[in-house]
Amino acid sequence: xxxxxxxxxxxxxxxxxxxxxxxxxxxxxxxxxxxxxxxxxxxxxxxxxxxxxxxxxxxxxxxxxxxxxxxxxxxxxxxxxxxxxxxxxxxxxxxxxxxxxxxxxxxxxxxxxxxxxxxxxxxxxxxxxxxxxxxxxxxxxxxxxxxxxxxxxxxxxxxxxxxxxxxxxxxxxxxxxxxxxxxxxxxxxxxxxxxxxxxxxxxxxxxxxxxxxxxxxxxxxxxxxxxxxxxxxxxxxxxxxxxxxxxxxxxxxxxxxxxxxxxxxxxxxxxxxxxxxxxxxxxxxxxxxxxxxxxxxxxxxxxxxxxxxxxxxxxxxxxxxxxxxxxxxxxxxxxx
Amino acid sequence: xxxxxxxxxxxxxxxxxxxxxxxxxxxxxxxxxxxxxxxxxxxxxxxxxxxxxxxxxxxxxxxxxxxxxxxxxxxxxxxxxxxxxxxxxxxxxxxxxxxxxxxxxxxxxxxxxxxxxxxxxxxxxxxxxxxxxxxxxxxxxxxxxxxxxxxxxxxxxxxxxxxxxxxxxxxxxxxxxxxxxxxxxxxxxxxxxxxxxxxxxxxxxxxxxxxxxxxxxxxxxxxxxxxxxxxxxxxxxxxxxxxxxxxxxxxxx
Lengths: 336, 253
Fold this sequence. Notes:
The complex is a heterodimer of chains A (about 325) and B (about 250). Chain A contains twelve helices and no strands. Chain A has about 325 residues and is mainly α. In chain A, helix 2 (about 35-60) packs antiparallel against helix 3 (about 65-80) and helix 4 (about 90-105) packs across helix 11 (about 260-295). Chain A starts with a helix and ends in a 12-residue tail after the last helix. The two termini of chain B are about 35 Å apart. Chain B has about 250 residues and is mainly α. The radius of gyration of chain B is 28 Å and the shape is elongated. In chain B, strands 1-2-3 form a three-stranded antiparallel sheet, with no helix packed on it. A two-stranded antiparallel sheet of chain B has the order 4-5. In chain B, strand 1 and strand 2 form a beta hairpin. Chains A and B meet through helix 1, helix 2, helix 3, helix 8 and helix 11 of A and strand 3, helix 2, helix 4, helix 5 and helix 7 of B.
């Protein structure tokens, strides 16, 4: 059977035009709430146009008209069949103090894995340097770390207080943006089934281990803690959380035992990834400020005990925040 | 629910209706990306001028702002544009491309963020080589960011309601004088053959004259085999007129 195309178009055209106008209005203003009558009408027009498309595909095979109707149905499809919960209105305070720590705890196994691989890297980095001190040039990422730690400590401690006055803001900005880029990269590498994330975390661990061993071995432990703890106790966990996000992404890619299709798994983890990486961003802003404005000042300007004490306090606050914040509020997970 | 065919993605609605989306390939996406890079460069140049003016007050402050702006504009351009324009950046708008949820649903902010954050991997080692290769190898032309965010990039088709008025004119159709033969023709004709005739008439002006004559001659010959109209009905009819009469009978019962 072939339908009477002329009569069909004449009869249906007013509905298509009305539907197209309605879709244009929705596209122009997606946030406007529609009343029940408007929604009913929209649904009716969607069903009618879908039915028309079905007729054209089955009984007329007219591609141009078919494409026109397909376009109308495709535009309305997302509006009609969207069953995912609408995200709540974003409140930064609630997000940071409730959602972020809740998300962190929900994926604690991924964090433990990130911590473990970093620790393994750190142990190996220290061991490599202990066994082969000549490998220092390869292991250390920056030129100022390749020299003798005691020489550096002496140079830092003899620096005039005014020497650091210029460039603190730009240094802080550089640290924030650079570390955030590294964190995003660490998270994004989760798409390599987590292999890239693990390699990056391991590499970070190797560098950390080598630096710690080098300074402790040279008897500069006090300087090391005074220099690294104020910003490191935030920066290192932040990179670990970015690694945690990367492993969450990898977990969603790999986990096919749950029976949930890949697309659904990816959608489910998307909000958690953003929460984790957003939280990391906030932590790195803090770490960047501290590294530029506190960490670079050494004894006698700032006593090491004070800097170390500050670092320990920060770490305690961070642990308290990540383990306790948001425990009294319901889990704010959003199903996507 | 989803079937893939060439460079289109066909979705089936719960009502059983199929519709297809034309997927954008890596080359056109790269062109859109070049436009976006130019836009970012332009925005940064303008902001750079303003920041340079701030250096008169404090060089350190202006450097800090410059570093932060470069980061924010570089990372945020695509996120803001795609969220604001429902899946489009300036480059994508120019090439009629749009980011969509892979199942045809509404694009979510989390999807926009994830696909853009994963640019850091897609852009490796340079000029989006990883993303380009993945896009080229993936049957839905998805880069890694699209895979993670469950999105696709489609080409927006400019569709308008076709105009059949000139096709269905009220000119005399001699075949209608023979209703029993007209009924037999409708019964015998294959819907695909009818669709070919309809399309040939719709697109007749796009064909060169010799191709048009050859096409209508072939079509008329095929339709003549289905039903034999009396000589007085077909006398003096050109092949194109014959096809037009047949299509008129089939689609205007």
